[in-house]
Amino acid sequence: MYPTLKDFVDKIFIVDTTLRDGEQTAGVVFANQEKIHIAKMLDEIGVNQIEAGIPAMGGAEKEAIKSIVNLGLKASIMAWNRAVIEDIKNSIDCGVDAVAISISTSDIHIKHKLKSSREDVLDSMSKAVEFAKSKGLYVSANAEDASRSEMDFLIKFAERARECGADRLRFCDTLGILDPFETFSKIKTIRDSVGIDIEMHTHNDFGMATANALAGVRGGARYVGVTVNGLGERAGNAALEEVVMALKIIHNIDLGFKTKKFIEICEYVANASSRQIPIWKTIVGANIFAHESGIHADGVLKNPTTYEAFSPDEVGLVRQIIIGKHSGSAAIKSKFNQFGIELSKEETKLILENVRNMSIQLKRPLFDKELMYIYNDVQKILNKGANLAV
Ligand SMILES: [Zn+2]
């Protein structure tokens, strides 16, 4: 039998970077009060580590991180740093218990961005990691653009990080260019070569951030970096709600998260980031539990598991039967039942015809009020028919 994800991993930790990578999204700024509120919600939901920001930016950013540290949350609070001692000193000022120390490992970044050499990269990372460890911090050594890095060098980087005391390696698919098969093979290679914990940090440029994060877990990564709503640079990151629900529903790995609160935190972050949740958004979109087509609505009315992978209340949503062009008679009958009206076969048939016509004209599903207009019209037609018959 094909092994399940459970066979590959004993424990999975969720690292949320909504407040760092999420806020790095072009055009997104959180107010400090919003950052604090988001941190509280992430902690309450069950996130293990919160990447709270970049202390080296100073000013309000540093204040926000300090305030989050002072909340005394259960989650570990991590700050993001370049592989620069000064950055780490700023993180220490904020009182965080963990630091991410980031430097590029791909030749393309080393040559064109850092204008440096592989040796210098290893050197800067080693010094920064050793410094942070000497201050008693938990350390993630971040390999930026890891997905485009040469494997031999990436392994060298991971080995050196481990020797310097780093607690884990963050594997960044910075451009989101991996597919799950490649991801699995890369992570497995690193895990088999270097005994260091790995965090997946995946981007969604080709729509594979969550798939790649889970493929990394299958390859041996125990940490998964996520953001609420998948907010993040360009196409975003792996979404918190997707990763947690995919683990729970597809892989039967329940991390014990308060998933009922997903809609609350997703809506809060959507408002704070001025990025509304599209109705078709995975897990928390308004359409995820909305059924209109006749066959689907009929199935769901008989038993929701026919067309729902999980129950809407697991993520704080409610099921909706939408009445529109694609509706069938079962949905119409059920809808009017909710209004306390028992429809006859003939009434149902006439209402359905009218619903379809009106919905095509309006190019949208119908509101309850409109359904009642149709019902009244149908009653008039039927009564007229009855009168004529007399
Ligand atoms: Zn990123």
UniProtKB/TrEMBL annotation:
Span of the secretion signal? none
Gene Ontology molecular-function annotations:
homocitrate synthase activity
Could you tell me which residue ranges the Pyruvate carboxyltransferase domain spans? 12-263
Which portions of this protein are annotated as coiled-coil regions?
A: none
InterPro entries, from UniProt?
AIPM/Hcit_synth_CS, Aldolase_TIM, LeuA/HCS_post-cat, NifV/FrbC, PYR_CT
Q: Which GO terms describe its biological process?
A: L-leucine biosynthetic process; nitrogen fixation
Q: What Enzyme Commission number(s) does the record list for this chain?
A: 2.3.3.14
Domain of life according to the entry: Bacteria
Query: Which reactions are catalysed by this chain?
Result: acetyl-CoA + 2-oxoglutarate + H2O = (2R)-homocitrate + CoA + H(+)
Q: Which keywords, in A-to-Z order, does the entry hold? A: Acyltransferase, Amino-acid biosynthesis, Branched-chain amino acid biosynthesis, Leucine biosynthesis, Nitrogen fixation, Transferase
Q: Kindly list the residue ranges recorded as spanning the membrane.
A: none
Job description of the protein: This protein is a Fe-Mo-cofactor biosynthetic component.
Family per record = Belongs to the alpha-IPM synthase/homocitrate synthase family. LeuA type 1 subfamily.
* Protein's UniProt name: Homocitrate synthase
Naturally occurring in which organism (per UniProt): Thermodesulfobium narugense DSM 14796
